[in-house]
Task: inverse folding
């Protein structure tokens, strides 16, 4: 999907109903994902995908989010992504890309309401809503993009290196917020990370991507 179209759909997102679904990926294949890839992520579970740059980790997240053409099945509970509209699927399966998309000059224009506690949890002032996007650092944009995603109450989190541009305090804040959110809402989390120490802290299970294929679970 083109970035402009994805941005338009982000503007249309709203909160959905809560449930305790399992994320299932079955025989998934896409361009540069040789697959087939199969796994599942339980409610409240954090599954980490690691691997070398270019191995297909981000493509896997984009395929699960139905942002690139793919074969196979991706389902959330009893809902298959191919059986509902792309917009409805992405209301429930929330992707935080490595580089977030911004379609307007003001931060507040990207939010349909926001719990200010999220900003505080991420070390951001409430006044951040009035900032111009262009004045935000990469780390501030990364934290604001996470707040924007959580404000839409997704039923799954797909996180592509969510702390890559953050200092140690920022990393700690983001990890703590995601940990609390996934347990409070009992949602599956699929997290891409290169950091062994972070993987040790956040992962319930870990898989490794190698040349577009998902290797066996890491002990």
Result:
């Amino acid at each position: 999907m083109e970035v402009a179209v994805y941005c338009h759909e982000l503007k249309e997102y709203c909160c959905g109903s809560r449930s305790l679904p399992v994320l299932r990926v079955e025989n998934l294949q896409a361009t540069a994902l040789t697959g087939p890839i199969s796994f599942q992520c339980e409610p409240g579970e954090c599954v980490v995908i690691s691997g070398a740059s270019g191995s297909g980790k981000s493509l896997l997240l984009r395929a699960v989010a139905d942002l690139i053409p793919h074969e196979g099945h991706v389902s959330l509970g009893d809902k298959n992504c191919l059986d509902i509209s792309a917009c409805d699927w992405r209301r429930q399966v929330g992707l935080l890309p490595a580089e977030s998309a911004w379609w307007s000059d003001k931060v507040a224009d990207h939010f349909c309401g926001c719990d200010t506690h999220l900003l505080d949890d991420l070390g951001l002032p409430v006044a951040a809503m009035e900032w111009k996007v262009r004045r935000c650092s990469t780390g501030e944009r990364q934290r604001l993009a996470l707040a924007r995603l959580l404000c839409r109450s997704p039923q799954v989190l797909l996180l592509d290196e969510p702390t890559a541009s953050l200092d140690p305090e920022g990393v700690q804040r983001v990890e703590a917020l995601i940990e609390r959110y996934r347990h409070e809402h009992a949602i599956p989390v699929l997290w891409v990370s290169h950091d062994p120490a972070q993987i040790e802290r956040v992962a319930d299970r870990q898989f490794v991507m190698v040349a577009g294929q998902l290797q066996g679970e890491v002990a």
User: Anything to note?
Assistant: Residues 1-18 have pLDDT under 50 and may be disordered. The longest strand covers residues 33-41. The two ends are 36 Å apart (CA to CA). The longest helix spans residues 168-185.
